[in-house]
Amino acid sequence: MSSRKPAQPTPAPPSGHDGASKPGDVSSAAATMVGFAAIALWSMMMGLVRIVSESFGATLGSAMIYTCGAVLLLVFRRPKPLWLAPKRYLLVGGGLFVFYESSIALSIGLASSAAQSVEISLINYLWPTMMVLLAAAVSRRRHAVWFALPGAVVATAGVFLAVGGNSGLDWHVAARHVVENPLPFALSFAGALAWSVYAVATPSMSKGYDGTSVFFPCVCGALWLVHFASGDGLPAAAPPPHAWATVLVTAAVIAGGYACWGFGILHGSMEKMAVASYATPVLSVGASSLLLGLSLSMPFWIGTLLVAAGSLLNWFGNRFGGVG
Question: What's the mean pLDDT when you consider all of the chain?
Answer without folding.
Answer: 81
